[in-house]
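Input record, target 12 of the design panel.
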């Protein structure tokens, strides 16, 4: 039985029942012939107190030698606890030591460690309160994403990790080859040839392939890892990260916005309800007022403005930004945070960006200078969702591809979707790690993914 389950099920009727748990010792203290073990099994933030006395066979030989990090399996009687801050405890009848942790070598002791230090011991950091909590929140958010889309009638698809399509058009892809660095590329097609017969890379987005299935099944979503070979060594960037990308046929930009806003509110409400203990920890130690911020988002409509209105707000602010703004330049994180944190105080949906700064697949507006794009910006993070209505008009899409220097032959399959039963359609991408940052208040994106990959850093 897990500690989390014991907490949920405990009642007077369970008092006196025999239970078994397995976990890791957080602390041990001895007093008046007893040992008190704080054991955590990872199922929740709370430890459970185990009381061991000298009547247990291995009390002196093992139990009194237990230190932080040792793993144990405990069988005993569940009783109501008189101690403050806990409802139950276990009076041990049997304690089996599964694994020892030398206190002279074990790097995690009963003190607060910096996140920078914990990144140096990436294989042990999930055992800390904060990183364990982040992992449970991440798991819950992943579950809630699938539940939301399944309830809305979406079909999940699995888009390829290896792709020949550069969706963003920036060329920042990890090339996939066989062999090793400095060697000839060897595949079934012979030395010096690409394995797939053409250049391939790790995907930066599953959007284009998701559009294929949206044009057959209506509403679909893909959720998985994506990769960006961008040499950005900041607290906001990863080389490997997870993206949620829904695509909807017969859905215009307004429809797209409604689904994105509903999704974000659904996810926030779910995690507040089901991860209350971990969220309270983040609210207390990571970001003061975190729960108030999240509930404020849940309870209020998002603000809608155009890109042009956003630029006007920034220009009249009188603030000295690192990156100056003018109509036609992309918004930077400092601009996005200013708008959400200082001007509106709510998530902000910005629409109708200049076509020149957006990818070729976004639908051109009637003014022929902007596209039907939307970004959702949130406090502390900036952009968390980016999406658009897709260009469904064959000739317009073809012209945009030619203007952008895209090899049309490589994307003929994408153009075919506009030849055979084209529909108005739209979609968006949600950066999963940025969502977790917003939900937990964690400042560095490397602390919300299990094994961060950044330039020069790929542990485990």
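The sequence produced for target 12 reads:
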């Amino acid at each position: 039985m897990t500690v989390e389950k014991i907490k949920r099920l405990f009642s007077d009727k369970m008092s006196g029942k025999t239970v078994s748990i397995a976990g890791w010792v957080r602390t041990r203290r001895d007093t008046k012939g007893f040992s008190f073990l704080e054991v955590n099994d990872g199922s929740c933030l709370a430890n459970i107190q185990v009381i061991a006395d000298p009547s247990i066979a291995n009390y002196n030989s093992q139990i009194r030698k237990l230190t932080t990090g040792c793993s144990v399996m405990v069988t005993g009687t569940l009783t109501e606890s008189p101690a403050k801050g806990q409802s139950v405890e276990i009076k041990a009848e049997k304690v089996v030591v599964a694994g020892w942790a030398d206190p002279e070598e074990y790097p995690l002791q009963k003190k607060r460690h910096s996140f920078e230090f914990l990144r140096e011991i990436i294989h042990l950091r999930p055992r800390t309160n904060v990183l364990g909590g982040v992992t449970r929140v991440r798991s819950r958010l992943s579950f809630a994403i699938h539940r939301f889309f399944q309830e809305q009638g979406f079909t999940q698809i699995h888009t390829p990790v290896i792709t020949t399509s550069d969706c963003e058009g920036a060329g920042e892809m990890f090339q996939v080859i066989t062999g090793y660095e400095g060697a000839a590329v060897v595949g079934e097609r012979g030395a010096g040839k690409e394995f797939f017969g053409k250049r391939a890379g790790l995907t930066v987005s599953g959007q284009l392939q998701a559009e294929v299935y949206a044009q057959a099944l209506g509403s679909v979503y893909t959720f998985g890892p994506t990769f960006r070979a961008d040499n950005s060594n900041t607290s906001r960037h990863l080389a490997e990260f997870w993206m949620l990308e829904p695509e909807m046929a017969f859905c215009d930009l307004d429809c797209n916005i409604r689904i994105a806003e509903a999704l974000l509110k659904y996810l926030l409400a779910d995690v507040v309800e089901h991860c209350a203990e971990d969220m309270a920890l983040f609210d207390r130690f990571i970001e003061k007022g975190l729960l108030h911020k999240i509930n404020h988002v849940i309870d209020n409509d998002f603000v809608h403005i155009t890109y042009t209105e956003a630029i006007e707000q920034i220009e009249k602010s009188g603030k000295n930004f690192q990156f100056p703004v003018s109509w036609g330049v992309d918004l930077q994180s400092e601009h996005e945070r200013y708008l959400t944190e200082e001007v509106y105080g709510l998530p902000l949906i910005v629409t109708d960006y200049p076509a020149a700064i957006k990818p070729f697949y976004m639908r051109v507006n009637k003014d022929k200078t902007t596209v039907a794009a939307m970004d959702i910006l949130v406090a502390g993070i900036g952009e968390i969702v980016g999406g658009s209505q897709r260009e469904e008009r064959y000739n317009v899409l073809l012209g945009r591809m030619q203007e952008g220097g895209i090899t049309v032959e490589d994307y003929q399959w994408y153009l075919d979707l506009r030849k055979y039963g084209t529909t108005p359609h739209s979609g968006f991408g949600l950066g999963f790690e940025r969502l977790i940052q917003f939900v937990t208040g964690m400042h560095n994106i490397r602390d919300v993914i299990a094994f961060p990959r950044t330039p020069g850093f790929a542990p485990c």
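The chain has two domains: 3-99, 125-447.
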